[in-house]
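Researcher: We're teaching a course module on how sequence relates to structure. For the next exercise, students receive a sequence and then see the predicted structure as tokens, so they can try to spot secondary structure elements on their own. Here is the exercise chain.
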Amino acid sequence: MNTLKYVIKRILLSVVILFFVALIIYTIMRCLPTSYIETVARQKSMQPGSKSFEEWMAQLSSAYGMDKGIIAGFFQWLGQAIQGQFGDSWQYTVPVVQKFKETIGTSFAMSAIAMVFEWLIAIPLGIIAARKQYSKTDYTISVIAIACMSLPTFFLIALLKLVFCVKLGWFDLIGAVGRNYQQLSSGGRFLDRAHHLVLPIVTLVLISIGSLMRYVRTNMLEVLNADYIRTARAKGLSERKVIYKHAFRNTLIPLVTFLGGSLPGLFGGALFTETMYSIQGIGYASYHAMVAGDIPFSMFYMTFSAILALLGNLLADILYAVVDPRVRVS
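Model: And here is the predicted structure for the students to work with:
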């Protein structure tokens, strides 16, 4: 019962936080120096026999609520958003929700696969580095982790393209499908898309694996130096049981925190990676929408990211009690 009250309280608090976050985002978007409305109004005013630029600006601004003050415009947007209506994207000329549904699948698949590989690789390496502290293995893993954390994403992508696309010719430079995609069978299309997503997924794994390896290593070192670990070893337990049954279990709370923070990236897309590889996921779409001043789509994307961040924190708090019986809501 206490847990249910806690969850309800956190959800209500998250709603309040989300309200003010959305207000801040809307205010920032309204203060942009230009928008897609001006571009459309200028194009329409240049057509033969068309109305003037000022008349088109007034008409389009009224249609999208841009002629009102920030507060009035925000509450108009909020009322529609609560009903699931986020308007039409100015950049893509389709409903925002429709564009989101078209692009989220690719982004989620990439991020989910990258996260699985990240955890499968980083956690064992972090544990090995902690077990063999100050050894050559520890130094090697630490150097790899620091290198992955330090490499700029654009440099890593350029390096991977140079090696695997230009020199070896194993992959195309950009795109999510090949030239003959339409002529392939359903199985061939699946393999073609999977082939084109290899480098983007490798990029996502490399840029995120370093921080998780260091995170696991640091927490494992703290646990391995605890008194109960010495006691377990003194009782004659095998090293494998000491590490994986006693030590690693007590590092799960920090890992749950890390997992909760990964939720926005899982559904929010990899904006920079998708853009440089021309993978038309949600990150790619949001980048071009923001560049074009597409306020409806940008508002939806950033509000969606805020919701994911709040849900990630709530999920992490709930999972604390699952992984550690000592954690209880009083």
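Model: If you want an answer key for the exercise: The mean pLDDT is 83. Residues 127 and 191 are 34 Å apart (CA to CA).
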